Amino acid sequence: MGRLTRAEVQELNRRKVLEAAREEFGACGFRDAKIDRIAERAGLTRGAVYSNFPGKRALYFAVLADLAARTPTPSPPEHVGTAREALGALARVRVSRFPLTGAPEPEERLAMDLPSVVLADVRTRQPYGQLLKLHATVLGLALERLGTSNRRLVPMAETVLTLLHGADQLAAAAPGFVDPFQVVAACEQLAELAPQDGDWAPPHLPYVPKARPVDEPWTPPAATDALRGEAARLADDGVVAVLGLHRLEAAEEAVRAVARPEDAAVTVVLVTGEPGELGPLARLTVAELGTGLRQAFPRNSWPSVRIVHDESQAVAAAVGLSAVSDATETAVRIAGGRIVARAEGRGACHAAARA
Questions:
Q1: CATH label, 205-354, candidates 3.90.1170.40, 3.40.30.10, 3.30.43.10, 3.30.9.10
Q2: 2-30: per-residue pLDDT in tens?
Q3: Is the pTM of this model over 0.90?
Q4: Fewer CB within 10 Å: C terminus or N terminus of the chain?
């Protein structure tokens, strides 16, 4: 057997660290876990751990994201007739993971610390809030495709996620208090509520500048749609929106502004100024979204939105960005294999989608 290349050694060490960290966090929880013990479990040095992950929190997010990506999920249901049925299925997936006793299993304990870890620093709170906004946007769009009216159901999706996340945390804090069957029933009943927001428009619509017409080559790199686990097909006609983790709510603006969503896909490209720490948090949240879609919605009800993780900034560079941050919002309109319109700043998604 030949010697491993440098890249292969790095990947092998990364896997060792992730497995050792999963054991340490599962046994001790985030607060009491120690990097020195993780290094010892992995058979590596403390420096080798930090060469792969910038800190304990980044490592914790990476462990959860890795587990979410590797968790097998069944094929999507062939038919779900109503939003009520879909919300019930989504809730049953979530409550099946609730800890039901005072002594959770290691795998359960891993995720129990996530809320407190996110809450501990404003640098994680705001991105996590926007990631949940993106989660609610995609979930709401899927619910709309099941319905027979033109109601906007993103607020309903936000309420469902609020209920499920709150019940999840309470189930961990007060074992035996939360009734999973009542949580499922409550989510199903939310489908019967009328929307409260009426006609929707971006709050900054009067101030959105028009996209600039351009004629530029479009040579996107290969990318994966994190929702579907397949090629993202960035060369297709549509909108490519490069969004920092503080601007993910703008994804809905692109979707609503596209005249014919079936003819123009919206690709949301996630970038961040802290890829080592916030990149895994984004991967974790999107993986959970994909799991919910696959288990609760038939494939034909999934919205045309694609989500691409761009921690290497390769897609951002193809769009023309030399640097990104968590406040980035740049969108381009693609037609016939060319960039035909470009917009930057707040409102860029709406402007490019209407170009």
A1: 3.40.30.10
A2: 688 888 888 999 999 999 999 999 999 99
A3: yes
A4: N
